[in-house]
Amino acid sequence: MEENDYPVEIMLNTPATELLKEGDKVVGFKAVAEDGTTYNVRSAHGALLATGGFSGNPEMLREYNELWPWDEKTPLPTTNVYGHHGDGIKIALDEGAEVALMDSLMMFPFADVKNGADETTVGSDTDCLLVNAKGERFVDETLDRYTMTAALMEQPDEVLFLISDKDTCRIEGDKNYYGRSIQRLLDQGQLYRADTIEDLAKQMGADADTFKKTVERYNEIARAGEDPDFGRMIFTPDSPIENPPFYASPRTWAAHITEGGVVTDDISQVVREDGIPIEGLYAAGEVTVGMSGVSSMALGYVTGCGVFGA
Question: What are the Cα distances from residue 205, in Å, to 65, 161, 208?
Fold first, then answer.
């Protein structure tokens, strides 16, 4: 923005609280800064909601959930970035906006057991062995996130271990593929490493004989490329867990992304329940219906090009 002298002012810690309107037309937002200062932010072209989804809002997740077997006491951590609280959706709903697919809540089965993050993962989640806390395999590791999460929720303590070895750990130097320090993960109990399967089982708290038999059976299946136990069809030459050091990355499930959101027309204008656009109110990204995760970035890019004429 500085290099191109774009006319943009970023106001941190200044959340929008309501829309500014002239008649039925949206002309901006009212926002309140951390020090209590109220700003009326106006635009000749209206206002754009780009606030993300609501995977970080447990209350909204519970309100719209029709799929997952949790209750009011179930903790609902999220892998998403801070700020996905559904604030933009709430603002649009106050204007009578139509929403859809609000019950389409994608969970993620590879969240850190301590902080819900994905970035602490060690091992290839597309070519791995997954076991429960008993050291037993329980699912086809290549299934979709919804199916894998449902299977994980039925396991002891709802915890799994992603098992990898030297060939599949995706460690480069002393860091995992997200750039996190391996030693720090080991020190904080977010990762286990051993030169033998038996020692790894001990660190995991699993029965060594059970875990060893699980690994041996999995390796047999991986080498054959046929899985009569769980029906997995995708294996590579690196799939067997046989070259030390061995790693166990403890994971659980967490809210990942939401696919529901406000309905928009072909120019990204928010639409009311009666099908009439809310003049001057636009939305882009995961705040809109059907846009989620990295797929929402394309619309954001197009919107940015439209705003700045790039």
Answer: 33, 11, 9
Rounded to 10 deg, the angle between the 208-224 and 197-204 helix axes is 120
Q: Which residues pair with 310 in a beta bridge?
A: none
Q: Report the run of H or E that residue 201 belongs to, with start and end.
A: helix 197-204
Annotated catalytic residue: which of 62, 145, 217, 272?
Answer: 145
**Residue 154 DSSP SS3:** coil
Number of neighbours of residue 236 by Cβ within 10 angstroms? 13
Mind listing the pLDDT tens digit for each residue in 193-234? 999 999 999 999 999 999 999 999 999 999 999 999 999 999
What's the Rg (C-alpha) of the chain? 23
| Residues 6+ positions from 140 with CB-CB distance below 8 Å | 227, 230, 231, 232
Cα–Cα distances (Å) from 30 to 27, 39, 236, 307, in that order, read 10, 6, 55, 21
pTM of the model: 0.85
For the question of residue 145 being annotated catalytic, the response is yes
